[in-house]
Each structure stands twice: as structure tokens, then as C-alpha cells.
């Protein structure tokens, strides 16, 4: 008997993790081959969302580790060949942004570095973080197969990514296009629509006289090159003008000749219903220009400064130029009125909040519609299950309205795009990081030839944050199906955000970030895991309260003390074939069986929060408060001792996926198997014991 004092996670956790790792059972190839339980040696696969190798594990990661480990341990105990494949993501733009901040602090800038030098430094930084994160994943008790760990910049992954790119190109789905893109002036890269935020902004709306028209704009600085005035063909106010009509008029820097364009894309209700277009710097205008084959002229450069077309304003930044341009227009009598407090939605960079400057730039694009089609069908016919279910509708809506995906990024940190015809020699182009992680399930399993791919693909569950459903989950389905002709997973389980105790989003600036490692240090990993899973329904955000976790530390102590009592009381227990149980004792065993069935059903239905709650209440209020208390009056009885051992071992099994450390430690103290109990057969670890077997 080694269960002394209170439960001390520090004495148990690292030792136990090493024991598990050394056992080899994280690798499904090493699992016992007996045909036990529901799984009977079938495979069960989860690919871990590759953590960004640019910082520390945060509370969201801790949640991922907890939920996925629960799934994996449960299935492993059921006799499945459970594979949980860990990985790390170079996380292109994300990591480069983190590294740029580091450079800034050191008074350096990436724009003053050679691309290769920058790449090497970020690689060094990433590899250091990789080690760090691996340690933190272990700390969470994650029973993932480290021997199969993958990194998005591993040579075989890069090969797979290139293979996919080649196939897409051959199939005519990749094109190099001069299209309008979202440009972040600060980060000097293009961004996909998903990497921009819609932000409400209050500006002035200027009504400018443009010949006989009045046009409304919030961005007069883009108007220098505007030679086309567009109106809706059905707008009665402009019935006298025809498509192609030419007008001479006075404009910012002198007289120009303008042409009338009629197009249905114009909202008659906005402003005066007439507007001029700036195809280089506005997506709607770009569409109109494409349709009517109009020329496009760049007015603002990639650093956010006005070009020579702006005449005397050339070289100025927008903020500086705007009031001066208005001043000039006013002097020329071209300002009709100024509407203050004009509220509108603008796009901003999701990392730095800078205003996105739409620009035309040559990029690689991926045609998404042909990729989305089969996925829409698969979702509609229920080939993939969403938990919670409302994500089905959200995904379908997005897929049905999908836009082509700009694949290239102007950053060094990533997988270089092969033979990329860059606009300028020496300019680097790498793939959007989601292009590689979008291939993660089949790339990590060694598509197409490897044994692993044949054994473990398609995977079973994709568990990740609801907020990256479009970034990642939808793209994995599209690319996975396109390459392998199979959906990469059967179930998508999406968790919500982890918030602070008050239900607020954690952020460094608010100072309310809960570091999961501080929590494990204080209360133990098992307690943190319980805090992350109890009451956490999929898709909903979870308020992580330290008091709650403290409560689960108490629960760990309760388990410890109850086990200590049972083990001390049953030290001389010997097995006999027939146990003479009282009717009350029989009732207790019957209730235990009912609980096992209920918990199994809940686990199969992915209701881990509810399963955990059931076991928690059973152990505390039924086993400890009632059965153990009752047993004290005839603890010498063979039947009583049998009952206690039976319930304890069954409880440890059910608790194991949730609280792996303490349960494994106690399991190791149980007496060896005997013919009439379900106690351990040999020196088996609890992690590979059969789920839910008694008697
Ligand atoms: Zn930015």
C-alpha cells in the first residue's frame, strides 16, 4: 500500500506519463492483440489539430488535449487500435507575426533582413517552441503516438503538398490571376477573406460634384483615376444617360473625360445612386470593371502611399492626403456636402487591425466551387456528422457561397510555391498555411502507399475549435476528398471558447489569461481536465473557474482516500468462486451495471460532460457516502470486501479517460486478478484494461 497522505499529483504525473510512454501503448501497433470489447482490434483515429509552434499551450489547447485524450483512452480501453496522431504547424503568417513582434522589441525589422536569414531565424524559434509544446502536451496526459508525430515542414509533408498543387494545376483548378486581394500594409502580405475582420467605423461621407452628377465616397483619396461614372440601368434619375456617353468635367487635378456605365451592381439607395469606380482598390468596382472590360489603374501603392497619378499629393499617406484633397475640392467648389458620422463596415487585418487596402496583385488562386460540390452533397446526405448539429447548416451555407481561394502569401515563413512567377524578381511567395494543414489527415498518414494510410484513413473524429470550421475543417474535407476520394473523417466535433471565470474572452491586454500549466501545477492535471470537461457542452463556450478546479482537486483526494480505505480493508481478501452477497449488495452491483451502461452510451454519443458528471456523482455520493459507510459495520465480511473492490475497480475504469493519472496510480495498487473479480489480470496498465467489464 503506497497511498499515503493526500494525493500529490507532482509525485505521480511525470512518473506515470513516463510509464505509459515506455509501455509503447500510445502506438496502436503495440496494443494487446486479444479480441476484446467492442473494438475487437478495429482502428480508431484522431488526428490532433497541429498546434502552432510559436508560443505556449493556452487554455484552448488544454481543452483539445483533454477532449481528444478522453476519446482516445475510451476507445483504447474498448479494444480499438486507437491512434491519436500529434503534430505541429509552422503556422505561416501567424508565426511570422509573432516573430516580427519579437524583432520589433529588439529594434529590428524583417524588411531589413535577407529572406533566407529571416527563414532560418524563424525555423530556430519554431524548433525551440516545438520542444516546449511537446513537453506541455505530455503534461496534459495526452496519450498520443509520438512515434508518428508530424510537422508541417517535414519533407514528406511538403512533398504531399506539392503533389496536391501539381494535381490541382493539371486539373485546371489553379490559376495565376491578377485579381483584387486584401492587402495588409503593415504586414506586407495578401490575406484571404477569412483573415480579415469586419469592423464598424465612423467616417465622413463626402458628396462630390462629378460633372452633372453627385457621387458619395468615404475615400476621396482613391478617386484620382476615376473616369467611369456608374448607375443602375433602371434608375429613373439618370434615364437620360446612356451606357458609353462621354462627358467632359472638372476633377481634382484638372479636366478629365468621363464615361457613363450602366450596371445592376449599383445600389440605387446608396448616396445619389451614381458613383465613380476605382477598380484597383475596391472589390465591387473591380467586378464592374471586369464585366465591362474597363482599364484599372493603381492609385495607392503597397505601402499605403499615393502614386504619381495623385499629382501634388503623390507620396503622401492616406491620412495625410485626405483632408488636403477635400480642401482642394472645396476650393474648386466640387464638394456638395459632407455627412459627418457615416457608419460603415470596413475590413481590417485580423492580426494588427490595420485597414485592409484592397489591391490588384498577381496571385495563385484555387477554384473552390468544383471542390465544394461533392462536400455539399456529402454533408446533405449525412456522410459526415456534426457535433453540435447546427454547424451542418453553417458549413453548407459557406460552401454554397464559396469564393476562390488566394493561395499565395508574400511572407518567407512557409512552404515556397514551386516555380512561382513573382511580380518582382526576388519576391518570395509561400502557400497560405491552411493549404498544408488542409491536407493534414491524409498527409500525416502517408498517402497514398503507406500501411498507415490504409489502416487509419479515413479517420474517425476531427475535434477542433468551432471558430476554425471554414479555415480548416471545410478545407480538409474538400482537399481530402479531392485527393483520396474519401472524406477525411466521419464525425466533426467542435468545441467552443474557453473563457475566464467571469465568462470573458481571455486576452493579454485584459490580464485575465489562465495558463493551463499554472493550474496543473497548483491542482494537478486530473483536476484541470475535469474542470475543462464537466459542464462543457460541445460548441458552447466554457467559463474556466479556478474554484471549480479546486473542487476537482478535492474530488481527487476523495478518490484517493476512498481507495486507501478499500485497499487497507481488503488486505487479506482472498477470492472464492461463490460470493454470498446480501440483497442490498446485489442491488449495489445492479446499480453499478446500470451506470456502466449509461456512461458507455453517453461516451458513444460524445456527451463527455454528462458522462463525467454521472461518474463523479456516483463515486462521491453513492460509493463514498453510502456504500463505504454501510460497509464499515461488517468490513470483515468477504462479500463486503468483494463488493468494495468490485465497485472501486469499475469506477477507476470509468474515471480513467477523464482523470488518467490518479486512476492509474491507484490501479497499480490493486491486488492481482483472481477468478471471481474483474481486478487486473496481470501487471496490466489501466490504460489498456477493458472498458466496462465486471465479473
Ligand atoms: Zn496586418
From TrEMBL:
One of its GO terms (cellular component) is cytosol. It is an enzyme of class 6 (ligase). Residues 587-691 form the Methionyl/Valyl/Leucyl/Isoleucyl-tRNA synthetase anticodon-binding domain. Pfam families: Anticodon_1, tRNA-synt_1. It catalyses: tRNA(Val) + L-valine + ATP = L-valyl-tRNA(Val) + AMP + diphosphate. Keywords: Aminoacyl-tRNA synthetase, ATP-binding, Ligase, Nucleotide-binding, Protein biosynthesis. It comes from the Bacteria. Its EC number is 6.1.1.9. GO terms for biological process: valyl-tRNA aminoacylation. GO terms for molecular function: aminoacyl-tRNA deacylase activity; ATP binding; valine-tRNA ligase activity. Residues 15-428, 429-538 form the Aminoacyl-tRNA synthetase class Ia domain. This is valine--tRNA ligase. It comes from Candidatus Staskawiczbacteria bacterium RIFCSPHIGHO2_01_FULL_41_41.
